[in-house]
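User: Quick sanity check before I run a bigger batch. Here is a single chain. Can you write out its predicted 3D structure?
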Amino acid sequence: MKTFSAKPSDVERTWFVIDAENKILGQVAVEAARLLRGKHKPIFTPHIDTGDFVIVINADKVRLSGNKEREKIYTSFSGYVGGQKVETPRMVRKRRPVLLVERAVKGMIPKNRLGRAQLGKLKVYAGPEHPHEAQQPAAYEVA
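Assistant: Done. Predicted structure follows.
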C-alpha cells in the first residue's frame, strides 16, 4: 500500500452556499473552513489546496451565543503609543458585518501561503444576494 498524495491537477472544485441567517457564528465558520480546506474530500492532502469555493450569505444575521455580542472583544494594535483599538461584535456588525464571519474563518485556516490561497476562495455577503449564480453553487446546510 502506498499513501495517496493529491496533485493540484487532481482537484475538482465545486461551489457551496451557506446561509448564515440565525446560525451560530462558530458553527458557520467551522463548516466554511472545513469546505475551504477540503477536509470533506477523500483526496484531502494537507499541503495541497484541495478545497472548494464557499459563499456565505446573510452574514449580517449571524448569531453569537451567550453574552459574546456584548462581552467579546476584537483588539488591534498599530504599534504606536495609544494605538490600541478595541471593538465588540456589536460595533463590528454596525461598521462592516461581513468581517465577523471573515475573521472567524481566518482563525481556522493555516497561517501561511496555502492558507491565504484557501481564504481567497471564501466569498461573504451581508444580504441574501450574491453574484455567483453562474457557478451553480449547491446549498450547504449547517447543523
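The chain has five helices and six strands.

User: Great, the batch can go ahead then.
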